[in-house]
Write a structure and sequence with these properties.
Layout: H1 8-21, E1 25-27, E2 32-34, E3 40-49, H2 60-72, E4 86-94, E5 103-110, E6 121-128, E7 134-141, H3 147-150, E8 158-167, E9 180-185, H4 190-203, E10 210-212, E11 215-219, H5 226-234, E12 237-239, E13 245-249, E14 254-258, E15 262-263, E16 266-269, E17 275-276, E18 283-284, E19 286-289, H6 295-304, H7 309-322, E20 325-326, E21 328-331
Parallel strand pairs: 13-21
Antiparallel strand pairs: 1-12, 2-9, 3-4, 3-6, 4-5, 5-8, 6-7, 7-8, 9-11, 10-11, 13-14, 15-20, 16-19, 17-18
Length: 332
Amino acid sequence: MKRILVHMVVIAAVFLPSQLGAEVSVRIKDLVSIEGLRENQVYGYGLVVGLQGSGDSRVELTRTSLKNVLKNLGLEEDITNSKNVAAVLVTAKLPPFTRVGDRVDVTVSSIGDAKTLKGGLLLQSPLRGADNNIYVVAQGQLSSSQSGERRGRNNITVARVVNGGIIERGIEPEIVNNGMISLVMHNWDFTVADQIQKAIEKKYPDAKPVIVNGSIQCTVPGEGTVTEFISTIENLEVPASFQARVVVNEQDGTIVMGGDVRISRVVVSRSGMTITVEGSSRKGSVALIEDSSTVKNLVDSLNVIGASTTDIIAILKAMKNVGALHAELVIQ
């Protein structure tokens, strides 16, 4: 069978020069986060009332909790057999620099045998952090997505209280330790870390950035404020350089390429895929892919010759197995 050369060079001439001639620059703030500047999780226990007979039916915890609530209100009546109440866990995420009086959304999840929390009201519930201190007090009307109801699913056991949590204890994160701040990269890469280090050192020689334990530590200069220093660093731009990776979603046929993905010289043959030789009436099912081709060029060329998404995914897998695909292949 005659070998067929898929001329990737023509396609590469269209796409590659612009990519190689102008590197993409990314702000440092999009690549790193400040150590200590993070969300904080809180959680607690509560009761949801006002359910129309869809609450817990045989949960002793719910009955005891309801009885204690009524007792605190000075009521001794026994209505603990009511199915209008449900025991729930209440969770929330607190952004950094929260202040007393700020409001946050809270999520309510049933822990009993309630059929649905739809239409319920969360009673006042304290939410604690990992240090066992109370940071939020939550209360309010439950709301849920209407999409599930349109599909006929009315058994809602997870709901939200929008702005239902009030901050009772503020959080002041410590981002400066011993006169230094630490930049933690979202995805560690030595090349990008070196670029960040050089960019900071060029702008602030006194910062003396160093890489320590996977983070870039910088000394806060004497002049200016910490806020100005961090803001300036975050807006510095460095050339983007990421690991070569191809992500394939087999369910919907999506192929996403990241980084400078390269392919070595390889012969591709797949049953059911037909390639027509230019200037000839002969057809075959074998293609020769030249060195230094990219996955984008490969996919474009395979699309031109009529390869399906299933064919392309199968070929990428085979290329990875023989070592011709020089990138991490992620199958979802």
